[in-house]
Request: fold
Amino acid sequence: MRKTRSDEIVWRDETVGRIVPDGRSTKMQIRQAVNDLRRLREEIAGRKGFTPLTDQEIREAIEAGTR
Reply:
């Protein structure tokens, strides 16, 4: 069963939930997002003074975030 806009779940005359469409993206939207990210990556890499993070720096940031 496919839901259109939204359907409410009512229990004892009280709305307890709402079912809404999942909002999936189309393949074209996904491709556009990936292309945009690739262009952004190239732009950032071309900036003066840019140096990519090392694996160690990434690990340290992850560990710091879990403390």
